[in-house]
Amino acid sequence: MSPAKTPPTLEDFRVRAAATGLTLTAEDIEHLHKGYVGLLQLMERIPSHWAWAAEPPHVFRADE
Predict the structure, then answer these.
(1) Which of 17, 35, 55, 61 has its CA 20 to 30 A from that of 9?
(2) What pLDDT is attached to residue 34?
């Protein structure tokens, strides 16, 4: 697994959100930051030897 990366602070997240040009309230940004940090924490829990199985491949065959 790759080394743990420090998640962005709420202030860093506010700056990045402001750069998007979207009209987000302070509450919106707090919710998005909380979800982003939570997602990063969940991703850290996936062992690297299982990463290939995190999402099954989508295979489309022309003959079917």
Answers:
(1) 55
(2) 94
| Torsions phi, psi for 6 (to 5 deg) | -70, 125
Record the pTM: 0.63
Does residue 63 have a pLDDT over 70?
Answer: no
Asked if 4 and 44 count as a contact pair (C-beta separation under 8 A), the reply is yes
Structure tokens at 5: 């990366």
Sequence-distant (≥ 6) Cβ neighbours of residue 17 within 8 angstroms = 24, 29, 32
- Residue among 44, 24, 23 nearest 10 (CA): 24
